[in-house]
Amino acid sequence: MIKTDILIIGAGPTGLFAVFEAGLLKLKCHLIDALPQPGGQCSEIYPKKPIYDIPGFPEILADDLTKNLMEQCKQFEPGFTLGERADTLEKQEDGTFIVTTNKGTKHHAPIVAIAGGLGSFEPRKPLIHNLESFEDNGVEYIIKEPEFYRGKKVVIAGGGDSALDWSIYLSDIASEVTLIHRRNEFRGALDSVDKVQELKDTGKINLITPAEVVGLVGHHELKAVVVSQAEHIDKEYEVECDHFIPLFGLSPKLGPLGNWGLEIEKNAIKVNNALDYQTNIPGVFAIGDVNTYPGKLKLILCGFHEATLMCQAAYQIINPGKRYVLKYTTVSGVDGFDGTRKEAPKAVIKKIE
Amino acid sequence: MEQDINITIIDREGVSHTIEAPTDMAMNLMEVVRSYELAPEGTIGICGGMAMCASCQCYVLSDTELPEMQADEDAMLAEAFYVKENSRLGCQIQMTPAMEGLKVALAPES
């Protein structure tokens, strides 16, 4: 059982900044995220795109914002449960909560802050009629352990960075890699495209374009994919394989959060914005893009503000009646849980004679 | 102020809405759909309008002359599902006076 003060669901910018604000109040945080890396949409959808409305940053790449937030909160030693989706919320008799992920990891905390953005990212599944019957029997949407594919015949479908990058990576591990895309053009980074070209020319990647996987063959276990190719004349044929990995990106779904007994409106969680962004369940807060209230704006900068107020309310719940006044980091410095201290340099006092 | 234009949007339930869209607020079709709440929040415009998610895919039903498709929209549609000959991404269609009479149907959620 992982124990913490504030359990944050979602490791995007709002969740990461909450770690910093909580740390100033000496509260520890643990974050759960369905993605294998922190950053949320900033790392999953648009890492290389600039953002222009982060106060104090005229322009910052989404990836760099994530890096900065990780750096800013690191002295408060947040814990992470990554690649797992928060599935259930159980309120205990003492008012604390246990949150369990889809992999059974349990987390115990007096405060839960949902910073889930548009929901957890789920793989987008191509429209192949018997796809789901082969899930975990030859069809995987996310590559967790590349070694799993050693010596296997792998078919990858997709035309973006992940399809290109995994084709390159697996070409050294799998016995055979086939990349199938509906177009001859790919959408990935230029050097990935060049690398795939090189691997295709040296026979290490079998490239089939423009083509589509339209069916799967096998009995319980995957034996081959049916490929429909549309160059000059349409033709359909089978490509033998042990694994089919469709990589068509991820799309966010509110998912299990919708069953936690929270008040939901327009795919978002209703909160009390007059005070602390608490939900209808006392002790459970919703901050950032995942919440809604009159006048709500889905902006990262609004998420930062909401995270800050949430931490103040969390402090009051965890330390009932305890006195506290807001401190400025410039005045009091930042004391990390790792023993580090950041502080403003002392003023030099020197006499002029 | 520039004139509003009239456009028709068939939502994912098949209901047709003829609405007025402003042409002076730099809005695109995806944003117009959101402003009229013709698709539930969180099911359209997920990437914010960068042609990076295809959640605003629509089928163009009128013969309105549309802005030419750029490479990023074309590439995104190559990875989207339910794509047809007349598929476009709503976020790449700006509301200009030339869009008067535009008629589209929203593609299914995927």
What oligomeric state do the depicted chains represent? heterodimer
| DSSP strand content of chain A | 25-35%
The total tally of domains of chain B equals 1
- State the CATH architecture of chain B: Roll
CATH superfamily of chain B: Beta-grasp domain
- Quote the beta fraction of chain B: 15-25%
Instruction: Round the Cα radius of gyration of chain A to an integer and report it.
Output: 24 Å
The average pLDDT of chain A is 94
How much helix is in the residues of chain B?
10-25%
Number of helical regions of chain A:
7
What is the class of the largest domain in chain A in the CATH system? Alpha Beta
> Would you report the number of β strands of chain A?
25
Give the gist of this structure:
Chain A: InterPro entries: FAD/NAD-bd_sf, FAD/NAD-binding_dom, Fd--NADP_Rdtase_type_2, Ferredoxin-NADP_redctase_2. The complex is a heterodimer of chains A (353) and B (110). By secondary structure, chain A is of the alpha/beta class.
Secondary structure layout:
The complex is a heterodimer of chains A (353) and B (110).
Chain A: E1 2-3, E2 6-9, H1 13-24, E3 29-33, H2 41-44, E4 50-51, E5 60-61, H3 62-73, E6 79-82, E7 86-91, E8 97-101, E9 106-109, E10 111-114, E11 120-123, E12 153-157, H4 161-170, E13 176-180, H5 190-201, E14 206-208, E15 211-219, E16 221-229, E17 235-240, E18 243-246, E19 250-253, E20 264-265, E21 268-270, E22 284-286, E23 291-292, H6 300-318, H7 329-332, E24 334-335, E25 341-342
Parallel strand pairs in A: 1-9, 2-3, 2-10, 3-6, 10-22, 12-13, 12-18, 13-14, 21-23
Antiparallel strand pairs in A: 4-5, 7-8, 8-9, 11-19, 15-16, 16-17, 20-21, 24-25
Helix pairs in contact in A: 1-3, 1-6, 4-5
Chain B: E1 5-10, E2 16-21, H1 29-35, E3 57-60, H2 71-77, E4 87-89, E5 103-106
Protein name (chain B): 2Fe-2S iron-sulfur cluster binding domain-containing protein
Domain 2Fe-2S ferredoxin-type (chain B): 5-110
Keywords (chain B): 2Fe-2S, Iron, Iron-sulfur, Metal-binding
